[in-house]
Amino acid sequence: MDTSQHLYSHHWISREVEVEGEMLSHQQCAACRRDFVWDGDAGRWRAVHIALLRFDFLDEETSRRWGSEECPGRQLPEDINDRRRGYRFS
Ligand SMILES: [Zn+2]
């Protein structure tokens, strides 16, 4: 199922960041503050939490949900909890 069409509903601020020698494409929505990073191995955008000098991938359920929802237009309180469920990626 292609759920990436909803990603176009966000107001993206895109940038390239270097994390541990690897260049990553990062997008943050100016409205809801959700963050995604392009996972080249998986060939899709994945939800992330921005930590200092690294990204933490959020769980698959959050990635699927954020990727399948239209932009909520504001930062949602429940997104804070989603970020807490993330795990460290390095
Ligand atoms: Zn958004």
Your description of this structure?
This protein has 90 residues and is α+β, with helices and mostly antiparallel strands. It has one domain. The chain has helices spanning 60-68, 77-84; strands at residues 12-19, 22-29, 35-39, 44-51, 54-57. It has a five-stranded antiparallel β-sheet with strand order 1-2-3-4-5. β3 (35-39) and β4 form a beta hairpin. The protein is globular. The site of zinc ion has 6 residues, from loops. Residues 10, 29, 31-32, 34, 71 line the site of zinc ion (ZN).
Instruction: Please identify the structural class as seen in this structure.
Output: alpha+beta
Q: Give the SSE order as H and E letters.
A: EEEEEHH
Overall average residue pLDDT: 85
| Integer count of domains | 1
Shape, principal axes of CA atoms: globular
The overall strand count is 5
By DSSP (H or I, 4+ residues per run), the number of helices equals 2
Helical content class? 10-25%
Uncertain ranges: none
Terminal-residue CA separation? 28 Å
Write the layout of secondary structure elements.
Blueprint: E1 12-19, E2 22-29, E3 35-39, E4 44-51, E5 54-57, H1 60-68, H2 77-84
Notable traits:
binds zinc ion; 5 strands; 5-stranded antiparallel sheet; 90 residues; alpha+beta
Summarize the model shown.
With 90 residues, the chain is of the alpha+beta class. It is built from two helices and five strands; from the N terminus they run βββββαα. The protein has helices spanning 60-68, 77-84; strands spanning 12-19, 22-29, 35-39, 44-51, 54-57.
